[in-house]
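ugh ok so i messed up the first submission bc i forgot one of the chains. this is the corrected input, ALL of the components this time, i swear. 461 residues overall. if the numbers dont match what u have on ur side tell me asap before i send this to the collaborators (the ones from the other lab, u know who)
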Amino acid sequence: MLDLPTINFTDIFFVYQSTLMCVSIGLGIGALEDLAVWPIYSPRGLLSWKVSQYTFPFKGGGFVYKILAFLLQDHIFKSIAIVRLLAAGALLVLSALNILSASLVLMLLILNGMTILRSPYGLDGAYQMYLVVLLGLSVGIASGINTNIGKISCMFITGELILSYFIAGVTKMVSPIWRRSHALIAIFGTKSYGHPVIYKFVTFSTVLTTALSWGVMIFEVGFVGVLFLSPSIAWIFVLGGFAFHLFNAIFMGLNDFMLVFPATYPSLFFCLHLLDSNM
Amino acid sequence: MVLEWALATGFSVLLALSLLREVKKIEEGLSRMTLFFQYIPKWSFFAPIPNSFDYHIHYRTSRGFSTGPWQKADHFIHSRTRLAWLWNPKKKISKALIDVVTELINLHGKCNRDEVLISLPYLHILHFLDGLPSLEREEEIQFMVLANSAIWDDKVLFVSERHKLSKSLSKEEMSARKETYA
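and heres the new structure output, hopefully the right one now
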């Protein structure tokens, strides 16, 4: 069982186990959320399959088309959401019992990957990161986590994590709206992602808004610097990352980012230990 | 050993594509590989243009020579609960609307009117409104997309054509509509 006082990111089993446990919680909540808002996927919903099917990427009557068209229709797709929920629960339990199941992870990767075939709308960066993590984990576990492939898979997850922050930061820095610190006022002035308290805060003082905007951009772009730090100092970046996602979850409703991005941090620490030991 | 190199190469290609996807011309090229393209992560969140609006769908119906007032389809924007930091299913609804409307507006700016009328986002909105139970007795529908926020007043972004509701379509008209969508 997981020994909580010992957090050992040099132990690749612990890295995979902790990542699986974090991801399974997030995937379970995600599946439940999909079931809770099922009406948007229903025949009369905004994302009805009756409309989506006309832009389905597989055309014609081939075998793959027939299988996917069957799986993506309403009742089956809803059943798949239920299977995703159960599979996430099973993954959490098995991981806690020190059992890493490649087939379960692969199944979750395939089932979650089908969501974008059904409709690309309503998905976000957290969904993409789930697919990245599931891909890395399934390849690593299937090949043997103690092999070089197990390590390469952790490197892939870490690479996408660092890229995600870096690209997010750079695309903000090249934006005049972000550089002039108007972006936070614009975002928090909406009901979709905003919050009245934070809106008052960012409109109160230009200095505060500028500091917050540039703080976010510098953190995201600067996160790549974690690769040059020892694991004992890198904790500062990781805590900053967790605080950033917690803030976004509380004040923007982006709960799924808070659940999946920290799930990549064990891989990050493992890679930092690898770098540290090779120096 | 070969497998290690193959996987390392594959992962490296995915990482490179994630980075290159931010370059517009490369993204346009990748978008032709429709299925594979959808799985390459795009990490530019809220940038370069952050989401600055709340979008609203308004519709009006007509029956005979009589046209009703604009009404709001208020199914999409919800206030968040205290637990939304952990459990927030409604975000998917508002994100779906944002994505649909954003794509509709982009198409409206790039394509001709006929292409917009058979586009996926247009049809999604039309199909959704067509199914509203309160429209049983109506014959035609028209919708518009409105945007606003705490700092922006109401702004009309798009107005659709008038369409016959499917309840009032004959079988031949329904078949013709389905062929157009396909």
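quick check: Chain A has 14 helices and no strands. that seems consistent at least. Chain A touches chain B through 77 residues (CB under 8 Å).
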